[in-house]
Design a protein that fits this description.
The chain is of the alpha+beta class. The chain contains ten helices and 16 strands.
């Protein structure tokens, strides 16, 4: 769904230009801010920075064209951007939206009804729908043990604008797709697309098996392409283009009140030298949820616990070798397990580096089992 990571990367890079600081202050004030309260006990803080990235499917305001009859909003995309101490590397952890998690109590907020603690479990994107970003923040911290410092939420239109400002991005299709549901209409192969088709690709559910897990794999390549596009475009050397991206990001963005301009500038200055090869994308290990194995998933243990611990503590202890899949599926996300080195997560957990190229993964781009034309004809 929406490209929160593109917003995060763009905004972090954008703010690095101190020469236009005064102009950015005016735009900064246009970002919608939410006070996060009621989180309860939080995981221990480390010297790393962890930002919860949320892609909202809200159809309000400028997003009405994507389906004004769809009420509320859900977290179609959930990720944690982990910036290591020293800002020399970063890890992006994808959490499938259909992951089942406990019902935690969350107070009602403007636009969100809230929820009570209860038995059973719910999809993690429902925590956002009922309690807003604070409820999702609380749930992610509770289930992963990762201390969340801030959140950034981006809408459909913000994603489109940022892709256009970057000059487009490369994507890959295993077969020709013409899907009115997402708006994706492209032939098979590699394409360089602008915002509308990049968003359609991000939202596409009819490639391969239609699995959300497979969609995450494809979207990781799109995010890698975004990083590469930002590097090629020379954004940091063009105040005019920087300003344009800031404007487009700000008007479609929501953050917590603690993420102030000073903090963003500090982060941005540290990330200027971060290469695409030092960014890694990984996904939470999942298994089918027993009560609804066709539609929902749960964290696979002890793999998920080891991954969470590696990010939470930024450890460098040994973990599973490349391709190895340890056995065991205990439910608790805090099941004891050795933490793999964060620098090797993409090898141990099936992720990719930011320097990876589109069309580079047969599993992510698998096709052939879905019709090419979804118009019903």
């Amino acid at each position: 769904m929406t490209g929160w990571l593109s917003a995060a990367v763009a905004l972090l890079l954008v703010a690095a230009s101190l020469a236009v600081y005064a102009r950015y202050r005016a735009i900064w004030s246009s970002i919608h801010r939410v006070a996060i309260t009621g989180l309860g006990p939080q995981p221990q803080r480390t010297r790393a920075l962890n930002i919860l990235l949320i892609g909202s499917d809200s159809r309000a305001g400028a997003n009405r064209s994507f389906g004004s009859g769809i009420r509320g909003q859900r977290s179609d995309t959930i990720m944690i951007l982990h910036i290591a101490p020293g800002h020399r590397r970063a890890t992006v952890l994808s959490i499938p939206r259909d992951s089942m998690v406990p019902h935690l109590p969350c107070a009602a907020k403007p636009g969100f009804p809230g929820q009570q603690a209860g038995p059973g479990e719910e999809r993690i994107n429902a925590t956002f729908a009922r309690g807003g970003p604070g409820c999702l923040w609380k749930t992610v911290g509770h289930e992963t043990g990762i201390h969340i410092d801030h959140f950034i939420q981006l809408s459909f239109t913000g994603f489109e604008h940022i892709i256009n400002d970057l000059g487009g991005v490369s994507i890959c299709l295993p077969e020709a797709i013409r899907d009115p549901a997402s708006g994706l209409r492209l032939t098979a192969g590699l394409h360089h697309v602008m915002g509308a088709q990049a968003l359609a690709f991000w939202r596409e559910r009819h490639i391969g098996t239609g699995s959300d897990l497979q969609r995450i794999g494809r979207d990781q390549y799109l995010m890698a392409a975004l990083l590469q596009a930002a590097a090629r475009s020379g954004i940091l050397g063009s105040p005019t283009r920087l300003y344009s991206i800031v404007v487009d990001a700000a008007t479609a963005m929501t953050t917590d009140t603690g993420l102030d301009l000073s903090t963003m500038l500090t982060i941005a200055a540290s990330l200027r030298g971060l290469s695409s090869g030092s960014v890694r994308f990984v996904q939470v290990p999942e298994v089918p949820y027993p009560n609804d194995p066709q539609a929902e998933v749960m964290f696979e243990q002890p793999q998920a616990g080891a991954l969470f611990a590696a990010i939470a503590h930024d450890t460098a202890s040994p973990g599973p070798a490349r391709g190895e899949r340890p056995r065991g599926r205990a439910r608790s996300p805090r099941a004891p397990a050795k933490s793999p080195p964060v620098s090797g997560l993409s090898g141990s957990y099936g992720g990719i580096q930011g320097s990876a190229r589109a069309c580079g993964d047969k599993a992510a781009f698998a096709g052939g089992d879905m019709p090419r034309d979804f118009t019903g004809g």
